[in-house]
UniProtKB/TrEMBL annotation:
Keyword Lyase annotated: yes
PANTHER family per the UniProt record, alphabetical: ADENYLOSUCCINATE LYASE
Gene for this chain: purB
Keyword Transport: no
Record-linked Pfam families: ASL_C (PF08328), Lyase_1 (PF00206)
One annotated GO biological process: IMP biosynthetic process
Location of the Adenylosuccinate lyase PurB C-terminal domain: 329-449
UniProt-listed InterPro entries: Fumarase/histidase_N, Fumarate_lyase_CS, Fumarate_lyase_fam, Fumarate_lyase_N, L-Aspartase-like, PurB_bact, PurB_C
Stated role: Catalyzes two reactions in de novo purine nucleotide biosynthesis. Catalyzes the breakdown of 5-aminoimidazole- (N-succinylocarboxamide) ribotide (SAICAR or 2-[5-amino-1-(5-phospho-beta-D-ribosyl)imidazole-4-carboxamido]succinate) to 5-aminoimidazole-4-carboxamide ribotide (AICAR or 5-amino-1-(5-phospho-beta-D-ribosyl)imidazole-4-carboxamide) and fumarate, and of adenylosuccinate (ADS or N(6)-(1,2-dicarboxyethyl)-AMP) to adenosine monophosphate (AMP) and fumarate.
This enzyme's EC code(s): 4.3.2.2
Protein's name in the database: Adenylosuccinate lyase
Length: 459
């Protein structure tokens, strides 16, 4: 058997590449290295702006040229770093050498020794991960989540008044509306989305064990914690002042738990919509040229929701591992987080793929109101709740002498199918006031939806 040409091992870099490609700008190895170059360059500029160690602030032209090192970061830099890392066996050191090399090219050798000045690798890494994860979440992942919420909200509003039989424990239950049931997911997802938007993306910049020891050795007169804070906050991220060698990753744990939580809600959505399709409540809109089954031409399989379900499970497992692993680092530093964090993109990739499937799937379903109506018409026994509740109110008001309203309705309806006439006859014979009888006789399963429609207005 011949060996295949080089192939992507992960489906995210193969079959599903198009759906997740925007994440690669930030959460790939190249995206991380670009951010590392950005941090190194901005640290150089920050140090010279303060005229430390006899330097002078760089001119705007030189700053612009320096910033092009990350703004124009591309294949040549990727290749250069790969070759250098093969020698250094250290990724951040390779980035330092790249910046030094480019400084020489730009005629800025005089400040070369300030490259990576007083930094441990984790100073650069913590800032770089905060930048890349923040950008991936805010520029790619959150907009896709918001597009799913928007599609869901539109369906909820469209089907605000679409009465349907509810199913608790899989059994016929008090009717609701399809709009209200979809609105529940909108409400849940918007709450978690707000929490994710409020994430603090944090970094440290305090040296080998978080003490600024090297910085003070170089110049004890400088307020290094202030310099570090202003530098990190100037990058658009938050600052953690008390750390070991690493930033403690608690913000990442919080974020990944919240994204996993959102994924759990989305998984619930996928399985519910799948079930509604199975019940015939939603029909699927055929896609021209698509094949539903290799042998059964009539089928349109709910693959969007099945794919979303599977990818959310994979993403949730990875996010859970990230959260449980990153919360711990032995003593002042161990290297487990290095390997773990390289899978951030994989976790978000499967989540993004699920969001893409859900967004597409929600646009390919149509409510089958006739099926909902037939289901309601076949389950008049769900009005037993209304009847026994009205009877209780009548007993309390002194207009009825029925001793056990619940048992009365249980005997009538439990395990039995009854129709409109059966129920009407039963209501007419009840010992309750005329006004109460009229309200009950006017009820149908389709009108017994309470405030379901109004609840949709809350979203």
């Amino acid at each position: 058997m011949t060996t295949l040409p080089p192939q992507p091992l992960s489906p995210l870099d193969g079959r599903y590449r198009a759906a997740v490609a925007p994440l690669a700008d930030f959460l790939s190895e190249a995206g991380l290295n670009r951010a590392r170059v950005e941090v190194e360059v901005e640290w150089l500029i920050a140090l010279t702006d303060r005229s430390l160690f006899g330097t002078q602030p760089l001119g705007e032209s030189d700053k612009d040229k320096l910033r092009l090192l990350y703004l124009d970061f591309g294949q040549s830099e990727i290749d250069w770093l790969a070759e250098k890392e093969a020698v250094t066996r250290h990724d951040v050191k390779a980035v330092e050498y790249l910046v030094r090399d480019r400084l020489s090219t730009l005629g800025l050798d005089a400040i070369a020794e300030l490259t990576h000045f007083a930094c441990t690798s984790e100073d650069v890494n913590s800032a770089s991960y905060a930048l890349t994860v923040k950008r991936a979440v805010t520029e790619v992942w959150l907009p896709q989540l918001e597009s799913v919420i928007a599609a869901l909200k539109a369906l909820a509003i469209e089907h605000r008044d679409a009465a349907m039989l509810a199913r608790t424990h899989g059994q016929p239950a008090t009717p609701t509306t399809m709009g209200k049931e979809l609105a529940v997911f909108v409400w849940r997802l918007e709450r978690v989305a707000r929490q994710i938007r409020s994430t603090e993306f944090l970094a440290k910049f305090s040296g080998a064990t978080g003490t600024w020891s090297a910085h003070l050795s170089a110049d004890p007169q400088v307020d290094w914690p202030l310099v570090a804070r202003e530098f990190i906050e100037g990058l658009g991220i938050g600052f953690t002042p008390v750390t070991t060698q690493i930033e403690s990753h608690d913000w990442q744990v919080e974020l990944y738990d919240r994204v996993r939580h959102a994924g759990g809600i989305l998984h619930n959505l996928a399985t519910d919509v799948w079930t509604y399709i199975s019940l015939g409540y939603f029909s699927q809109i055929p896609v021209a040229g698509a094949t539903g089954s290799s042998t059964m031409p009539h089928k349109i399989n709910p693959i969007r929701f099945e794919n979303a379900e599977a990818n959310l499970e994979i993403s949730g497992g990875l996010l859970s591992t990230l959260a449980s692993t990153l919360v711990t680092s032995r003593l002042q530093r161990d290297l487990t987080d290095s390997t773990t964090q390289r899978n951030i993109g994989v976790a978000f990739g499967h989540s993004l793929l699920a969001l893409d499937n859900l967004r597409r799937g929600l646009g390919e379903i149509s409510l089958a109101q006739g099926v909902l109506d037939a289901d309601l018409e076949g389950n008049w026994e769900v009005l037993a709740e209304a009847i026994q509740t009205v009877v209780r109110a009548e007993v309390t008001a002194g207009r009825s002498h029925i001793s056990d309203p619940y048992a009365l309705l249980k005997d009538l309806t439990r395990g039995r199918r009854i129709g409109a006439e059966d129920l009407a006859e039963f209501v007419r014979g009840l010992d309750i006031g005329d006004a109460a009888k009229e309200r009950l006789l006017a009820l149908t399963p389709a009108t017994y939806t309470g405030l379901a429609s109004e609840l949709v207005d809350l979203i």
